[in-house]
Specification:
heterodimer, A: 5-stranded mixed beta barrel, 6 strands, B: alpha/beta, 60% helix
């Protein structure tokens, strides 16, 4: 029997593939890599492209990844695929957007965090919830 | 005592409310199931990336990334994941209480806290009480996408990179089961290495391509993002579960209220009949 290794291909939003294979090909940042069992440990970035696995029975499977990370252990390969299209500028723009939204929301804010007020507000809300629960218990007891 | 007509209209209005709460309960139940599926779908990624990080901690890299180094705390960041909508019982309130506890602790040590809010309830709360919100994202819907969270997570990571914050926490609701949601505070940065001393303990290191700094940076960034994403997905499952329970209680209460009102209505009706009868009898006796 040919030597095999375990492959997990996952994205943040779902598991894509998990199984035993004999070979993996992945689009690493510095060029396509082919990995056989007992490869030395390696950690690399992936660029958008195709991950190809050859299963034990010789069948091939293809998965598209839009970038991500590849971890290689002697008997295990993990592909952490990105779901989002990543680019430094794009991420930067999103960060700026998130900051702006926060600033917008805080236009009329007070200067400092008012812990006393926050705690009072929470205590009030919790007391209200507890009162409702008590009432419900009492109410449920008298009924039918 | 209120007249029959008044009670009848009151019953009608309570019945209408009950219809709404019952519909909301059913919607929440079906959404909860989907949210739970989504929650379990995100788990493999988190597990795998955690394992890779675990390997990384056991390897002897020539370079330690700043995300893995403890440093003196001068300011902390906290990511609060709350819901966008209300009517979900004490879910957000309990969460804010947990978050506030952490913030208070740091405040007592004279350390300021930056808040990043995910979800509009958290934004509203921290705005009202005057927290320093540095980034915000809301309106994620039922199926949040990683892409939508990236911006606000990056703000916090950048702050960490620039030394503006020295520790980063995430506060979210952990889904235990339908009845129980546990407010959880987790430390994101610096990353606490999982101490698994397995057979890999001999000296080895990865081949990094293109170089250690770049690859580690990317990996750890994704790790933090995936944890935040998982928190967001879990929080949505919690939201739906809490809403389902709250709406069920509301429907039950409405049912009880209707029962009592019906009793009052029947009493009033009976009283008016009795009164009418006695008036007729008295009239007949007078003739």
């Amino acid at each position: 029997m040919a030597m095999t290794m375990h492959v997990n291909i996952v994205s943040a939003e779902a598991e894509i593939f998990s199984g035993t294979v004999t070979q993996v090909f992945a689009p690493a940042l510095m060029g396509e890599v082919g990995i056989y069992p007992r490869h030395t440990q390696m950690l690399t970035q992936l660029k958008p492209g195709e991950v190809r696995v050859v299963k034990e029975n010789g069948d091939e499977d293809f998965f598209f990844v839009s970038g991500g990370m590849l971890e290689v252990q002697p008997h295990m390969v993990t592909v952490l695929s990105d779901t989002a299209v990543r680019a430094k500028d794009l991420d930067e723009a999103k960060a700026v957007e998130a900051k702006n939204r926060a600033e917008q929301a805080l236009k009329d804010r007070k200067s400092d965090m008012d812990y006393a007020r926050a705690e009072a507000e929470l205590a009030d809300a919790i007391a209200r919830l507890q009162a409702i629960q008590r009432m419900r218990r009492k109410f449920g007891g008298t009924r039918s | 005592m209120a007249s029959g007509k008044e009670i009848r209209s009151k019953i009608k209005s309570v019945q209408n409310t009950q219809k709404i709460t019952r519909a909301m309960e059913m919607v929440a139940a079906s959404k909860m199931r989907k949210a739970q599926d989504r929650m379990s779908a995100t788990r493999p990624y988190a597990e795998n990336i955690r394992r890779v990080i675990g390997h990384l901690a056991m390897a002897h890299p020539e370079y330690t990334h700043s995300y893995m180094r403890e440093r003196e705390v001068k300011r902390v960041g906290i990511i609060v994941i709350s819901t966008d909508r209300g009517l979900c019982g004490g879910l957000n309130t309990n969460l804010f209480k947990a978050g506030l506890g952490v913030m208070r602790e740091w405040k007592d040590k004279g350390i300021d806290v930056d808040v990043c809010s995910i979800g509009s309830k958290g934004l509203g709360f921290f705005k009202r009480v005057g927290g320093k919100i540095v980034a915000e994202v809301s309106g994620l819907g039922d199926a949040p996408r990683l892409e939508e969270l990236l911006g606000s997570v990056k703000v916090m990571l950048d702050a960490y990179d620039n030394g503006e914050i020295d520790r980063l926490f995430v506060v979210y609701n952990q889904f235990v089961n339908t009845m129980t949601q546990k407010p959880t505070v987790e430390q994101l940065l610096p990353i606490k290495a999982a101490n698994e001393t397995k057979d890999l303990a001999y000296h080895w290191d990865y081949i990094y391509e293109p170089d250690a700094q770049e690859v580690l940076g990317q990996l750890l960034m994704r790790y933090v993002e995936s944890l935040v994403y998982q928190g967001a997905v879990e929080n949505i499952a919690c939201e739906q579960a809490a809403r389902m329970v709250a709406m069920k209680a509301a429907s039950d209460n409405a049912g009880g209220l209707i029962g009592e009102l019906k009793l009052a209505y029947n009493k009033a009706r009976q009283a008016s009949i009795t009164q009418e009868l006695s008036e007729i009898v008295a009239g007949a006796a007078a003739v």
